[in-house]
TrEMBL record:
Pathway it works in: Amino-acid biosynthesis; L-asparagine biosynthesis; L-asparagine from L-aspartate (ammonia route): step 1/1
Gene Ontology, cellular component aspect: cytosol
High-level lineage: Bacteria, Bacillati, Bacillota, Bacilli, Lactobacillales
CDD domains, per database record: AsnA
Molecular function per GO: aspartate-ammonia ligase activity; ATP binding; catalytic activity, acting on a protein; transferase activity
Protein family membership: Belongs to the class-II aminoacyl-tRNA synthetase family. AsnA subfamily.
EC number: 6.3.1.1
Signal peptide (from-to): none
Protein name: Aspartate--ammonia ligase
Gene: asnA
Amino acid sequence: MHLLTPTGYDPKLSPRKTQEAIRYIRETFQDEFGKQLNLSRVSAPMMVDKATGLNDNLNGVESPVSFTMKDMPGHQMEIVHSLAKWKRNALGEFGFQPGEGLYTNMNAIRKDEDLDNFHSIYVDQWDWEKVITKDQRTVETLKATVRQIFKVIKHMEHEVWYKYPEAVHHLPDEIHFVTTQELEDRWPDLDPMAREDKIAKELGCVFIMQIGGALKSGKRHDGRAPDYDDWSLNGDIIFWYEPLDCKLEVSSMGIRVDEDAMAKQLKIAGAEDRLSLPFHKKIMDRELPYSIGGGIGQSRLCMLLLGKAHVGEVQASVWPQEMIDACDAHDIHLL
């Protein structure tokens, strides 16, 4: 267990008032987000059949919560880690066209998560996906979309400030862009997470690009599944978070693999056996649209905008008693 406990922490809002603010942020953000990116809200599953290959494999070492069903013997169901693959499949099934997309309220369980101020085994995020053309698979498309998302987050800051002026956490006015290789070149002696802290503190808000592949050192900046993001066209939106004196990631996103990137990355990951799964076959056979997509943490965004010290202040989950007691001692009220 790793827990940061800021000195003299003041939660500003009571737990009941916090619940009111959570509802306001979530409802307001998703409407504005959908409008700005031309996304339609759709319903999405909490579980998928393992045989479809639709679950997010994360770093490849986390195991999903799974179960069997009475009416589907021989099939193993998995609680989703995210909807990274399901969304792209849905774009094709629902007939979305270039420039159109979808978003959904995604609820997941990641039972192998290391718990801290930002991480819970319960994951709630807006998962979104948008159709693009082959020639839009560029860094320019990626950056333009990141700027759109940042604009919506900044708009939410002003909305929250108007409604809860005593509680809002003020954000920087601009988002910057940097690659993982640029970070390694600048701070070769630091580990990747320390590099992220450094650049976030320096710039306020940054989109860290190109996550998943090996750097010049031969090491990876961080893990990414090989079968949804194109590692050369992805990244994370990270804010410097003064209440805890560290970075706070609110979104992981990217342009999705085409058939060439899929084959290359599966080979690097030693996961070419996935090419036999239905989702992966559709990618290789060009049966699914090219797309860009990602996830925006709902609780992370509430935490960021309200200046909370722990994600458990803005979501109901389960925590070790040791963490609950330590939070209580520092006026951090977990829901």
